[in-house]
Write a structure and sequence with these properties.
Helices cover 37% and strands 18% of the residues. It is α/β, with parallel strands linked by helices.
Length: 174
């Protein structure tokens, strides 16, 4: 699975803050044999986010994870940029992330993150903090390979019962 990680941060894009969420996500993705082939930090500018999401999905990346810009701040533009490029929404993914987050903090309900599909690329918004990004990816990481396979027309047995981590692990295509 070819992945892009897009960190949205004004300070990070100016070199005033180290991005720790992007590298943390990359480390977690190694567990599902996902290869991060694109990584970039852009400012909280809607057009810069849109441009990168389009560029990477047009390159055929399987998954794009954004980190940052999903809250209530006037500079948080990631959901709007994502909605401007996706062709199909995937609300269950962002709902699962918020549900998982609510078990840890009531502030999870303040996330405006979205998820959706552009061409054959799944795009998922995650929070900007390292802890929030890790916990959010934790909520969905197990289904990402199947989601990508389905989008690309490679999945079979979509109605197969969920194993819940029991039994033999499924092998997923990279």
């Amino acid at each position: 699975m070819k992945v892009g990680i897009l960190t949205i941060s004004d300070k990070g894009s100016r070199g005033e803050r180290e991005d720790t969420s992007g590298p943390a996500l990359k480390k977690m993705l190694a567990g599902i044999k996902a290869e991060v082939v694109q990584y970039r930090i852009v400012p909280d500018e809607k057009e810069a986010i849109i441009q990168t999401l389009k560029e990477w999905s047009d390159q055929g990346l399987h998954l794009i994870l954004t980190t940052g810009g999903t809250g209530f701040s006037p500079r948080d533009n990631t959901p709007e940029a994502t909605l401007a490029v996706i062709e199909k929404s995937a609300p269950g993914i962002s709902e699962a992330i918020r549900f998982h987050g609510l078990k840890k903090t009531p502030r999870a309900m303040l996330s405006r993150a979205v998820a959706g599909i552009r061409r054959q690329t799944l795009i998922v918004n995650l929070p900007g903090s390292e802890k929030g990004a890790r916990e959010s990816l934790e909520a969905i990481i197990e289904v990402l390979p199947h989601a990508v396979e389905t989008i690309r027309g490679l999945a079979s047995e979509c109605a197969a019962p969920f194993q819940g981590g029991q039994g033999k692990p499924r092998r997923h295509r990279n």
